[in-house]
């Protein structure tokens, strides 16, 4: 019995066919780059790994590969946004249509970063709905880029692993 605990209805049909092709891992990497840079608008980030598991395969080696690609892709995407924020500034980022936050909401994430420091990067990357939103405050701070990459990767690893576990074991738990 193949477990499908998460609904994949929001996955675009064209994306399903790409995930089923020989380019599946390249497509996954590209999606994760977009997600990390906050440019993934056509599907929720919470569906990327489960969709990949459902459409590429959910064996343990494939699941580990999918999680690894997702972590590397999202970390690189976030690092690109981190560098963009560092070099262009807050006003530039907030004025862009692709950036998902208003000035007031970004103020809240600035306060989170000020309160919790660099560890907030890893913590926020693990949480639904705020995933990656501390990338811009981190980029605007004096945070070392190596520390950012490490903490971003740790948070992404926990997020992607949780999604994979929910997908892989959720079907079995629902069957009980």
From TrEMBL:
Keywords attached to this entry: Cell membrane, Membrane, Transmembrane, Transmembrane helix
Compartments in which it is found: Cell membrane
Presence of keyword Cell membrane: yes
Any one Gene Ontology cellular component term annotated for this protein: plasma membrane
The VTT domain, residue ranges: 44-165
Keyword Kinase: no
Membrane protein topology class: Multi-pass membrane protein
TM segment ranges: 23-42, 63-85, 116-136, 148-175
Record PANTHER family: ALKALINE PHOSPHATASE LIKE PROTEIN, UNDECAPRENYL PHOSPHATE TRANSPORTER A
Protein name: VTT domain-containing protein
Source species: Natrialba asiatica (strain ATCC 700177 / DSM 12278 / JCM 9576 / FERM P-10747 / NBRC 102637 / 172P1)
Lineage of producing organism: Archaea, Methanobacteriati, Methanobacteriota, Stenosarchaea group, Halobacteria
């Amino acid at each position: 019995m193949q477990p499908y605990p998460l609904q994949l209805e929001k996955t675009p049909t064209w994306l399903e066919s790409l995930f089923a092709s020989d380019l599946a891992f390249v497509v996954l990497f590209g999606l994760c780059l977009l997600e990390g840079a906050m440019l993934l608008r056509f599907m929720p980030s919470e569906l990327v790994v489960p969709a990949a598991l459902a459409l590429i395969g959910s064996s343990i080696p494939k699941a580990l590969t999918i999680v690894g690609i997702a972590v590397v892709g999202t970390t690189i995407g976030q690092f690109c946004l981190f560098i963009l924020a560092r070099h262009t500034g807050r006003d530039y980022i907030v004025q862009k249509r692709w950036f998902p936050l208003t000035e007031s909401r970004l103020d809240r994430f600035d306060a989170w970063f000020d309160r919790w420091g660099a560890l907030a990067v890893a913590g926020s990357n693990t949480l639904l709905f705020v995933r990656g939103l501390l990338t811009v405050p981190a980029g605007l701070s004096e945070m070392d880029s190596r520390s950012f990459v490490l903490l971003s990767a740790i948070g992404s690893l926990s997020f992607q692993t949780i999604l994979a576990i929910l997908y892989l074991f959720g079907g079995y738990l629902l069957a009980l």
